[in-house]
Amino acid sequence: MKYVTEFRDPKAAKSLLAAIAQTADKIGVTRAKPLHIMEICGGHTHAIFRYGLDKLVHEGVEFIHGPGCPVCVLPMSRIDECVEIARQPGVIFTTFGDAMRVPGHKQSLLQAKAAGADIRMVYSPLDALELARRNPDREVVFFGLGFETTTPSTALSIQAAAREGLTNFSIFCNHITVPEPIKALLDDPDMVLDGFIGPGHVSMVIGTHPYDFIARDYHKPIVVAGFEPLDLLQSVLMVLTQIAERRAEVENQYARVVPEHGNPVSLAAIDDVYEKRPSFEWRGLGEIDASGLRIRPKYAAFDSEEKFCIGYAAGPRHFEEPEGCACGAVMTGRIKPTACPQFGRGCTPEMPLGALMVSSEGACAAYWQYGGARAAAE
Amino acid sequence: MCLGIPGQIIAITDPARLMAMADVSGVRREVNIACIADGPLEALIGEWALIHVGFAMSRIDADEAAKTLDALHDLGEAQEALEAMAAGQAALEMQR
Ligand code: SF4
């Protein structure tokens, strides 16, 4: 956590905090009866903790950490399927580093690598594509995961592979979308959410209109935000101002990066390569309708699920999560990480039980990294 | 993985594949520029872009790039991105 004096512009931060406090008082919220503002993106969760924004804002504003870390919402069975693919003879399995330590039922990818599978961390699906070009006798699989920010990268990679006629490159597609889980949370009668901080980089791809339903159908404000501390404070103020004025709109605080209609090239590539799955399993949230993407039949040759007949291509699925883990409740903001019985006991960054403890964008890891001392004091 | 990192386009390396060389915090990395190529490619040289897992996703101005880099360094995400780039390079060179 930082002090306001260390912010890039401490004066601006102080005046935003004062305006937030004033608006919160006007609405009449208190520590006992707070507003619940959900930040959807894991990058925002990380920034809120890094800068201690949750402690700096008026005590009537409570941040609820949303399901916006793609690694955290992966069901364990998807990791099991990665390991299964990676262990096939001839396969080079490539992945973002974030996914390496996520536990599966038996092994993480890191453990599978130690046991002899050819698993390589890459920065980009372009690296996987290059590996396929250089190793025509090997089968190169890329673990495609992430929200709409990463989806264009795998879509463009599949298009490139198709153009070049590569036959040894495929993607194990786990791409998910942001609007559907928000809808699922809004439909959940147990959830009380008063407003949203919308993801910045996802919105750079999809624009702001996919969130229209939040304001129109659920009458909740959402403000698309950048992830610098001042962006976040300003966005909180914008949400509060809407609530004070009884408005519910989609506002764009991050207009310098997020165009209203998104990025046309990215959207066209996504649409060409992917279609919606009827439903997709989220860790802690269960199956959510139309929340995941799969590769269209015309690109089936680049679809690892088809190539290896695994995952959704292998038929109906059933999942069990480990006992005593509260990942689902944390993921939906129902409880704070420290309320999970495993937090710091059965589950630490060194020995994670849930993915929320692995990724720097996971709420449990953020609490652990920045809030350990704070939590102990509470 | 979810946050982009600013980089400056310094050369077009493969116009057919829409690939360019970018300077990301002093590290050179080939990136795809399909998403920002809305005019002559040469015009992109010197421009800043938000680079996400090897793809330039959005053009930004130099001031925005500096602010974003600052925040990423604070969050430790800049270091993470640079390490991932190095890991990607190593993965290509690995023989087995
Ligand atoms: S502490 Fe571990 S087990 Fe508990 S919710 Fe967080 S990641 Fe899941």
UniProtKB/TrEMBL annotation, chain B:
Q: Which GO terms describe its biological process?
A: protein maturation
Extract the GO molecular function terms from the UniProt entry. carbon dioxide binding; iron ion binding
- Endpoints of the signal sequence: none
SUPFAM superfamilies xref list: HupF/HypC-like
Which family does this protein fall into? Belongs to the HupF/HypC family.
User: Entry's NCBIfam families?
Assistant: hypC_hupF (TIGR00074)
Stated name of the protein? Hydrogenase-2 operon protein HybG
Origin species: mine drainage metagenome
